[in-house]
Please model this.
Amino acid sequence: MLFISIVFLLFAGTGLAQVQDQTAKAVDEYIRVEMERQKIPGVSIAVVKEGKPVLVKGYGLSNVEHQVAVKPETIFQSGSVGKQFTAFAVMLLVDEGKINLEEKISKYLGDVPTAWSNITVRHLLTHTSGLGDYTQDFNLWQDYAEDELLKKAQGVPTAFAPGEKWQYSNLGYLTLGALIRKVSGKFYGDLLQERVFKPLGMTTARVISEADIIPNRAMGYRLENGELKHQNWVAPQFNTTADGALYLTALDMIKWDEALTQGKLLKKESYDQMWTPVKLNNGQTYPYGFGWALGEVNGHKSIEHGGAWQGFKAFILRYPGDKLTVIVLANLAQTNEGKLARGIAQIYEPTLVPKPIEDPEPKATAIFRGQLVKLAEGKPDLDLFTPNMQKFISGPQDRFTAFVKSLGEIKKFELLSRREVTEGIAYRYRVEFATETAYMNVVKQADGKISALGFQPQ
Model:
């Protein structure tokens, strides 16, 4: 009987190894096809399943000029994936009682503009402060001091009252970096190094430095008229801001995912707050926590975030209920990093492929599909759109219209989700075109006008 059991376990182990090998080969082929289609020089991925890395691999080139291959140790830039680390640093200080999430930021920063007087720390973390993004007044080639950057941010008009709505804000996280320094007396990058990176064994994670000699550093690239070019240069200070300016490897991110899974360094209550949808002033919620976007597909909850900066793209996609995490790092500005991550996740867990739902508003769907066709023809019914959207989709040089036209004929148009949002109703569709499948988000206001229409990664 013991012999039979051993033989069974051997065969079972062999079968599992074969399945894992087939899955890895499927990922290899998927990445190969997407890299060729998207013209990506290099990609590094990590897949963690049941708490263990099951695939950690580099594809393509980290440096095209010197023909250096990507490997797990290759260092990429984080872009806005870095925001979750900034949020984590804030929560370390919250756990110590040094920061109160509901406190006005003026308590920590000192004098602030009148428009900032009601902004709380929570507002900054959740992109509900009313602060926006960098404007043309910010010269990316000028090396400002941190205080100068904060002063320039304070000069940018707010878009709405704190808590009124959600709007992604790099300036909000830049401000959090200054707030961390005021409270802790340390540069946020030094705080992360001491309190997060070293304790977790993230040995190559650090704030960006163009000057330092850093082994295994990848180069960032962009496509210009179809030709590969180096990333655009920015002044050193813009590579140190808390809105996303880190060096990371796939190996660092595996350690980070392990910490998140096991609840290391922070109180459980702090983790819960980071992954709770923000509540707006009107009582509605938006699917964003503290540096994390929150979602679900077919009942599977997801916690994720992407990043883009200086010719790099990054993405971390976590499905806690499935104990599955996918990490993608790439060195091309135009990379569809979300598509890569979700495509890999769906290979490991086919139930994550989005399923269409019953359409309660077929007339609205018909209008959206019809306008997509008319956009491709350059003849949208502008009166169906808000003034801002009219500006976005009109004009002979409109890139969005050109993109829609390039996709070809619509073969299938399926509703994946429908939910109420502050502006009205948000819809998500899977659109099968002649050339590829894309995912379209639409927001329709209460007056029936379309206030948002765009494509996102699958």
In short: The longest strand covers residues 52-63.
